[in-house]
Specification:
The protein is an alpha/beta fold. It has eleven helices and eight strands. The strands form two sheets. A four-stranded parallel sheet has the order 2-1-3-4, sandwiched between helices. α2 crosses α6 (155-172), α6 (155-172) packs antiparallel against α7 (177-201) and α7 (177-201) packs parallel to α11 (299-313). The structure holds zinc ion (ZN).
Amino acid sequence: MIGLSGRRTRTTLALTATALAASLALTACGGSSSAKGTDGKLNVVASFYPMEFLAQQIGKDHVSVTDLTAPGVEPHDLELTAKQVAGVQKADAILYLKGLQPTVDQAVDQASAKTKIDATAASPLVDHHLDEGAEGGDAHQDKGPAGDPHIWLDPARYAAIAKSVGDGFAKADPSHAEDYRKNTDDLVTRLTALDQEFQAGLKDVGTKTFVTSHAAFGYLADHYGLTQVAINGVDPESEPTPVRLAEVQKAARDNGVTTIFFETLVSPKLADTVAKDLGLKTAVLDPLEGVKDPAEDDYLSVMRQNLASLRAALGAPGSAPAGAPTPAATS
Ligand SMILES: [Zn+2]
């Protein structure tokens, strides 16, 4: 029954699509008054990769997306060029995460776009103090009360943001509302599956504590019952104090930590030094602030790599040991 009706729906859809294409061609010539750019697509500006991914997945062919943060560039404290600011001002819709990039926040404030989608409206920020009682090294203290911006690293929060993007696009471009809704549902389904993989994969781990160079994984840790010990604050370029380093070393020793994580867009030097001091391994935990090669990887594939890395570092049963030396003592 399902198969039959499915096939029928597809035939109907194909016919509708042809009719739609014809009517779209007419509209394009007629020059309608909808909130769209010259190419007939919704002109969307996304502040950095996780926002760009949502815009692409939900908007597909109906949108033209510009990412303000180039691939491989670290997004914290991004400076915008005059051209980019002009682009923000001309956008039909803007997707951003208030509190992550101050210059983007300013440009968005000054932009006249009717559709401004702030990720933190769908998933409010929490102030994550560096765990294990850190006083030193938390560079986020000087960033005001905005809180930890890394909400996209919790797939459940990311799904909530996806829904708000779907709603925003549907309002900005009502003639394609149905497609935006369908694409949103599809993405949310994939994010829910990812969330379930994380839940299952991190259930029976040997230790719940992981050490990372940049405090990007507070929401992920909260959601899966883990403890993040960060060498740095939420700003990846900050330098830890000797006091902070001593605290991290103690936390690592007390909790049977095997691995120091570093990230892809920032030099691993600090993580290397700390790991060497403690005789530990290093591995990559990617905060997805940018994807180096969007043709190779996306949010979902990188998150699955992160899950595998976490399972290995935390001694999950059946996981491959992270990086090198110790062939993991299972118990
Ligand atoms: Zn960050």
